[in-house]
Amino acid sequence: MLGSLPWLPGWAKHAGVGRPVSAPVQPSARWQDVLELVAAIVLARDGLRALAYKTATPSPPCFVNPLHGPGSKVIGRSRFREFLPQSHSQMPACAACARRHDVGMRVLRLPDSDGQLWPYFRFSGFWTRTGFGAFEPDFPRRVLEHLGVG
User: Does the pTM of the predicted model rise above 0.70?
Assistant: First the structure.
């Protein structure tokens, strides 16, 4: 158990992780997926903000581009000209994206298997379904469940 390891800082002992996450010895397609890399960056920043502000629930990321950081404003789906998840009419956005009438040029685009760039929310999976935390009020718990460590 991580909680019994004396060399971990106090906050890590209470991070909700009961056991280490298993990882391959060598990188594979599963561990080099672009969505996974974006998620790692977003989650690391969330963790740093949670520590800095002493909160268990950091602000959701900018839906337009989760790499922009936390969303400080709310925008409507009418700001997008591209396909969006139908279940969400409002989403968090960083201040810079919230000022734009059409946020299409600011959307994070990722390559598909052919190298063609698409808005990240066009891909399927846990990270895009949750908007990297934009649509999940208890995102830290959901991530732990998704990774099998919660």
Answer: yes
Of 119, 124, 131, 125, nearest to 146 by C-alpha is 125
Whether the Cβ atoms of residue 150 and residue 71 lie closer than 8 Å to each other: no
Specify whether the CB–CB gap between 46 and 134 falls below 8 A. Answer: no
Consecutive sets of 10 residues in the chain, 150 residues long: mean pLDDT of each?
Answer: 42 46 60 85 90 88 94 88 71 93 89 90 90 86 85
* C-alpha–C-alpha distance, residues 26 and 120, integer Å: 26
Q: b or e along 103-118 (b: 16 or more beta carbons within 10 Å of the residue's beta carbon)?
A: beebbbebeeeeeeee
